[in-house]
Amino acid sequence: MVKRCFGYLSGARLHVAGGLVLLLFAALLEIALPWPIAYLVDSVFGDEAPPDWLAKAPGFRPGDPETQAAVTLAVMIVLLGVMHKTLTMLSQLWMIHAGNKMVRGLRVQALETLYRLPLAFHDRSKVGDLLHRTAYDSYALQSLLSGVLVPMLSGLCISIGVFVVMFRLDITLALITTATAPLLWFNIKTYEGRIAKRSKKFHDNEGTLAANLQESLSSIRVIQAFTLEQGNNRSFAERADTSVRENLRKSGAELSFGWVIGVIMAIGTAAVVWVGTLAVLSGRLSAGEVLVFLAYLGTLYQPLNAFSQGAGVYHSATAQLSRVFEIIDEPVTVDEPADPIIPEKVMGRLEFDHVTFSYNGDRPALHDVSFDLEPGKVLALVGRTGSGKSTTASLLLRFYDPEKGSVRLDGHDLRSLGLGWLRSNVSIVFQEPFLFSASIRENIAMGNPDASNEDIELAAKRAQADEFISQFPEGYDTQLGERGVNLSGGQRQRLSIARAFLKDAPVIILDEPTSALDPATERDLLGAMEALMKGRTTIIIAHRLSTIRRADCIGVFERGKLVEFGTHHDLMAKRGVFHDLASTQDDPEPVSV
Ligand SMILES: Nc1ncnc2c1ncn2[C@@H]1O[C@H](COP(=O)(O)OP(=O)(O)OP(=O)(O)O)[C@@H](O)[C@H]1O
């Protein structure tokens, strides 16, 4: 895990190296901090001779008044303090910057993976949880650097320096201090597994909480319409209670870990104070040296504390990072082939060759489906709900790959074609058009980000959307709310048809594009859809038979099987499933093929 995290350092090496150098200097200054006090006690209050370099300092010459010497030492204290704080601040700033760069790298990688992961993964994942992992858990990389690596390294430098000085001052006291280390280590080992487990549980629950919240907010209309507020609130409150409990368990483990550390430190300090006092009384050490020793005790416990606290942060951070790495390590089952075929031209011939597919490995959603569709022809897929029509469309875009058989475009198995290339040559208009919180112009341009304003407006005209867009005061620059809530269903669908016009792909899938609209709006849209289908191989999925009047052939699905395939005329004459469907439908417009 640590090695893997170091991999994200690549873009921030300079800042980390600079931060570490400053850290080293700051540690050296920390070791020097208590010495002015020692000189004050021994050479100003007492009668010991000051060291040579200090004796030569202005104001410290023999015969000078003692207050002048005190001023020199006071200036030293200020200078050491300012330099120490400045170096510490700069080193932390660089490290935080490096940490942020690492977090950025991890977040971008997680999002890139999420884009590449197959829909099967997204079907079984909760959006809120993925959001929590990508946006928040990734931040643990920063904690690992600033909360573990930096304090530990800084602690290590300070410990080494302090131990060297302490051993030179008094071996007995230094050994007593060192004796606390195994106790601290034992405590770390006792608590690390417990903290990691509780931390993972807490963050998993937080992810579920975020997922619930996201789901509730994105279905706010349904919640208000069906007065589900109370029920939803209750289940959210229950989740939040679990979160409180898990957080308490996690914090309890962390705090009792800290409590044991505090007790060990108090006992260690008491022992050092006792032995130090005896050393002064027996004349083995000067009062100034004991003061330095006592000051070092605080300094030394600080890095030891950083080591032990660092272990807690480390386990919490690695638990969070493992949640992000779970995304990154998820196998990309629908991926770009190793050597993709990129045909120069698309004719648009589609073939399903004995295709079988199931979502979860048990009952197939498609069973042995085979059909051919000539370039430029329109195929309408009809059938009862859940019979497999949308699944057929999903396979065409390689949202999923078939388990058996193959889907081919112009004779090439889709799995051998470049994935990006394939998706840029197949347009889809969904039943529920998704509009982003952006301007109308930007929403249409998603069909082709390089399109000029003229192209965008032309596409809107062809989709019969130009008229209503021009009526907005800001026209094409009108901002749409989240999911385009300020447009009617028909207007939203027109924008999504305009996107398809702009994308200008040779293959089009229309997945029940009008089934959510009233018959009058549907009639208005049919003209735009027919213009879109012209000259392109089209698969149109329809519940209302009025939308398939332009179809060259019709495929009828029943429980995942393609039970009938042919022209409208043939299927009606056959008096089979299609005939039954057509005759039970109260169709405002007769089907004419
Ligand atoms: N993401 C999914 N995960 C698991 N099962 C699914 C998923 N999507 C569809 N199914 C199942 O696959 C079968 C075919 O569904 P599909 O959406 O293709 O039907 P459909 O004919 O398009 O239905 P409708 O007309 O209602 O849209 C159904 O049994 C459905 O429950």
Automatic annotation (TrEMBL):
<protein>
    <submittedName>
        <fullName>Protein-tyrosine-phosphatase</fullName>
    </submittedName>
</protein>
<dbReference type="InterPro" id="IPR003593">
    <property type="entry name" value="AAA+_ATPase"/>
</dbReference>
<dbReference type="InterPro" id="IPR011527">
    <property type="entry name" value="ABC1_TM_dom"/>
</dbReference>
<feature type="transmembrane region" description="Helical">
    <location>
        <begin position="12"/>
        <end position="35"/>
    </location>
</feature>
<keyword id="KW-0547">Nucleotide-binding</keyword>
<keyword id="KW-0812">Transmembrane</keyword>
<dbReference type="Pfam" id="PF00664">
    <property type="entry name" value="ABC_membrane"/>
</dbReference>
<keyword id="KW-0067">ATP-binding</keyword>
<dbReference type="InterPro" id="IPR036640">
    <property type="entry name" value="ABC1_TM_sf"/>
</dbReference>
<keyword id="KW-1133">Transmembrane helix</keyword>
<feature type="transmembrane region" description="Helical">
    <location>
        <begin position="143"/>
        <end position="165"/>
    </location>
</feature>
<dbReference type="InterPro" id="IPR017871">
    <property type="entry name" value="ABC_transporter-like_CS"/>
</dbReference>
<feature type="domain" description="ABC transporter">
    <location>
        <begin position="350"/>
        <end position="584"/>
    </location>
</feature>
<feature type="transmembrane region" description="Helical">
    <location>
        <begin position="171"/>
        <end position="188"/>
    </location>
</feature>
<keyword id="KW-0472">Membrane</keyword>
<feature type="transmembrane region" description="Helical">
    <location>
        <begin position="69"/>
        <end position="87"/>
    </location>
</feature>
<dbReference type="InterPro" id="IPR027417">
    <property type="entry name" value="P-loop_NTPase"/>
</dbReference>
<dbReference type="Pfam" id="PF00005">
    <property type="entry name" value="ABC_tran"/>
</dbReference>
<dbReference type="InterPro" id="IPR039421">
    <property type="entry name" value="Type_1_exporter"/>
</dbReference>
<feature type="domain" description="ABC transmembrane type-1">
    <location>
        <begin position="17"/>
        <end position="316"/>
    </location>
</feature>
<dbReference type="InterPro" id="IPR003439">
    <property type="entry name" value="ABC_transporter-like_ATP-bd"/>
</dbReference>
<feature type="transmembrane region" description="Helical">
    <location>
        <begin position="257"/>
        <end position="281"/>
    </location>
</feature>
